[in-house]
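User: Peptidase M56 BlaR1, Paenibacillus hemerocallicola:
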Amino acid sequence: MKNLSVRVRRIIIVGGVLALGVIFGTFAINTTSAKTNQKPTPVTIYPKNENGETYGSALYARTVEDRPELIEATGEGGVRGYIRKKDLEVELPKTPEEALAFNKKRQAEGPRQIPLYDVDGKTVIGVFKSS
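Assistant: Predicted structure for Peptidase M56 BlaR1:
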């Protein structure tokens, strides 16, 4: 009889521990999934130059729109500076025919030469070539 009551107590204790594990595990999963359903954290805050333009690396930008106005780049001859985000923008083709014509034109023109600026965004210090 005594052995039976010891077994019952063990079963009750083990069952209670398992039940607590399930309850806390469910809580942890719900908390984690609630965090992952939140909106993404704000984009990197870039410093601003004396003209109020943001500058820095585009490496951490989550979207094209999140990139700074002046993007770090290495130009011809290894000159390090910044290119304007707007200088990288091109109107993309809408049809396969436009895409073929676009590619043909780009190949004929060769790499685009984009001004490379100092951090002030005004002083041109070199050239960045973009294909």
